[in-house]
Amino acid sequence: MIPAPDLTISGHASIDGAALFAPLTLTLAAGQWTCLLGGSGVGKTTVLRLIAGLETGAKFTGQITASDGQPVAARVAYMAQDDLLLPWATVAQNVSLGARLRREKPDLARRDRLIERMRLQNHMTKKPSELSGGQRQRVALARTLMEDRPIVLLDEPFSALDARTRADMQELAAEALHGRTVLLVTHDPGEAARLGQSIVVMTPSGLTPCQPPHAPAPRKVDDVETLETQGSLLRLLREEVA
Amino acid sequence: MKYLSALAATLFALAIWQGIVTLTGLPKFILPGPALVAETWWQNRWVIAEHTWITAVEVVIGMAFGTVLGVITALQLANSRAARVLVQPMLVFTQALPVFALAPLLTLWLGYGLWSKVAMAVLIIYFPITSSFFDGLMRTPSGYLDLARTMQANRRTVLWHIRVPAALPSLASGMRLSAVYAPIGAVIGEWVGSSQGLGYLMLLANGRAKTDLMFAAMLTLGVFSILLHMIVRRATARMAGEMR
Questions:
Q1: How many pairs of residues across A and B have Cβ atoms under 8 Å apart?
Q2: B32-235 has which fold?
């Protein structure tokens, strides 16, 4: 894998002249997890989609740059709340989808290793409908890893899972995506407190950087400092609404 | 249970039919009873089978051509904005024309034989196939397209690997609809000008006041259409995602 770069997005966005988010500057540190925490409608998903080069419906004025000067959108992998698995394709085909879409020959050995790493080796030829929610999200993670991009954008990928599966997935993702520049957009203070090496709260008035817990991520679910951070993040979110 | 209820419904319909015949005492050249129609059907079974075969061939060839044409058109429309601007209004306009009005023209152009009926069947199913598949192609879940975009997919591979498979259920419903429409098209073609086929037989029987034979031919057409629909339904079950 190419070394992951720092990433900076700065600018402001508006929809039909109404400001979606005020001028802001967000820097994602190279090889680290940045958690962008915010309530619904503050534009955190728009920030992620802008970095990914996806349609947002908003007019963005500003720039998105990588510290190595290379283009950004071509080097991202994307994972959303919806696993986006193709229902007609098998697990193995879904994992190697990117190569097929680019008309490249997929590295089958690597694909099989990733599937094994996600503990899905017994499900290779199954269709997504035969899998549980957690298994499906593991396939999506394997597909994201298969892309092997230095920048990974996660748009609330765990929010539809039950508490236990979510905690498992958080650990699995933290371990699997180690060393990449990761942006995790989430509305869950607990998730941000567990995973963020840098935590930024997004509100209509702008971005507020917060101190992450000292323990290395992923932090234990019952780590006291993590729970305190979760509490203070939630307090910050609620203050902004009031 | 499904078959039992179908049988019950058939018997019920026959009872009503017989009831009307008995109560009104209509002469048999106006409304023949079910028993007479069954008898006539049996006596003329080989003639009916022969004409059914002709109609079936027209319908099947028409469906094959209509489906291929519809699929190609939908793909072109989905792929090019210019095609949408130029062709789509024309497509809607042709659908607004009554096919009955076109039937004599087709007979004039393509003759009395098989091809004018095939053309009728094609015309009548072309629009439902095209529009259902096209709608499916244009309604690809946006998340798939986002994902493909971050993967640097090109337009062609997105079409083949994502948009087409995602639209197959819509195509399947278009094909199921076409199984009901295609026999109508073929029979209209036969009415306008032919010397064989179930439509021809119906017209002939009607003209000679052989109403019982007319009913026998008509019911045969009905059964044929239902069977065709069932076959197409089964054949497209995988496409429609019913066996996933």
A1: 65
A2: MetI-like fold (1.10.3720)
